[in-house]
């Protein structure tokens, strides 16, 4: 029905939550093959969003390696979109509210990610998308000094904005219940306003993660649903979800379609966060097409056209689900439905 926004698949679910304490990582080539093979009524994925960390894509990739990556994508009929900067300590970064050394490591990863983003644009395989960041800090550490730590995160994010602007990039901060200072809808709004760089720093909304905000998980004072909420009352959830999205939508410049069963999950080294589910999971709480509209349309129901692509995030799916081709056909089908309902020409 519509040709825009472009439809992307996230590559990082092949790595996030995988490893020695969980299941083996899934290679980038395998993720690309599954994405490229998905097809529904002649429609295919347009591209992928990438995680700039090994064993997928090295943050220290050379020009030749990035050219090879571009050829790898183009050979499958795919383009690159948003890029995840590996800002966390285990991947070479550091806490945005940490020591001077931590902050320097965080900003180094932002700079390297922006360099890669700019190079992929120069090569011609990437024409849109953002650089994704978060606070790389735990909620319990942040809670030791909420005001002071939020101020530190904002200062680091402003420095990151300076870096991004030098490369013609925009940053999107993805709020999740596991990231200190970004663990509730209100905390995200306050942080973004404190940074005050809307032309450079926006919000990355993931449908599964943000649904946890309505429940007040890790921030009961910001709950938009009653403690005894009955999940059968779908209208109450839709109302709470719209209220939450209305507060964050003006900042939203990147969007993940996802499903959530209302529980949290951690796996491997990843802290507990909103649980992603397959689109047809019987325990899924979201009406994916309806609730995507809370982000893709404004309060008056007009399509915002705030970003050029939308992306599916299937973080921490079991490998048996990830490696089943039918999983990606189902994902593509719901992505098409979202675009048909809220897209444009």
Concise synopsis of the structure shown:
The protein is an alpha/beta fold. The protein is built from eleven helices and ten strands.
Any overview of this molecule?
It is a single chain. Helix content is 39%, strand content 16%. It has 345 residues and is of the alpha/beta class. The chain has a single domain (6-342), classed as Divalent-metal-dependent TIM barrel enzymes (TIM Barrel, Alpha-Beta Barrel), CATH 3.20.20.150. Helix 5 (146-166) crosses helix 6, helix 6 packs parallel to helix 8 and helix 7 (207-214) packs across helix 8.
> What is the number of helices?
11
The percentage of residues in β strands lies in 15-25%
Major sheet: order of its strands?
1-2-3-4-5-6-7-10
Radius of gyration over C-alpha positions, nearest whole angstrom: 19 Å
Give me the secondary-structure category: alpha/beta
According to CATH, the homologous superfamily is Divalent-metal-dependent TIM barrel enzymes
Q: What structural keywords apply?
A:
TIM Barrel, 8-stranded parallel barrel, single chain, 10 strands, about 40% helix, about 350 residues, 11 helices, globular, alpha/beta, two-stranded antiparallel ribbon, about 15% strand
